[in-house]
Amino acid sequence: MAEKNITCVSEFLLIAFTDRPAWALPLFLLFLLIYLLTLLENLGMMSLIRADGQLHTPMYFFLGHLSFMDVCYSSAIVPQMLAVLLEHGATLSYSRCTTQFFLFTFFGSIDCYLLAVMAYDRYVAVCRPLLYVTIMTEKALWGLVAGAHGASLSSAFVRMVTAFTLSFCGNNEIDFIFCDLPPLLKLTCGDSYTQEVVIIVFAIFVILACMVVILVSYLFIIVAIVRIPSVGGRAKTFSTCASHLMVVSLFFGTFIFMYLRDNSGHSSQEDQVVSVFYTTVIPMLNPLIYSLRNKEVKEALRKVLERAQLS
User: What's the pTM?
Assistant: First the structure.
């Protein structure tokens, strides 16, 4: 058999949306606006939680961390995407692609774990109200957040090492907005079955573990709500969980659609639209969902605006 010349890839070329040059400027301005709103809303939410004493509760403690992670999560992806649109393609070195893949996986995993922790917090608040202060101590809060960071760090490191032990050769063009697993797998050469299995297993473990915690927590919450005799009491209790449920549905819905499906028969354009949604739109929507559906946040915001007008 004749020996084939194989050129190993030392850099990657992101070419998402470059097949439609007329869309570049409008998309650039749109995504820039979304990114600025994401920063403004999430940093504003963090400042509001810090400034208002009534928001110094476990639920808002976790929400503040979620807002910070959304800033990091979006910042790991969107600036690079803007560069791709502005320059009609962008070249990433092997190390930059590796770093971006790790950061995306790390921050995305933390979001998963934080949403699961927030579901547990709602379970304790609704089902164990008399023990809430005893269970959700400051030490417990920091322990849960530290656990989310530790678990995310380990899973992201394993996925990064496994993904980038693959051999990439030949074509180095990634028709995507960042260095993500599905487009990278298209560039591999040789047998990558073992690495793919490891990566997918870790992804499934993170998503399923978090979803089990969320589903079990809300199962107990629903049972507790049904037992409340008054309609008003049931509505008030459910309203404390509604925002979290909306965020969970958006976040996990898009992740499951993107990563836990059969990729055959799906176009790169479809994947790009989905990836834009979970990397740019969801981090922007999260603080809006929590502020528009939460009386405590709206009241805190009203106080801040009143103080600003008086000063």
Answer: 0.89
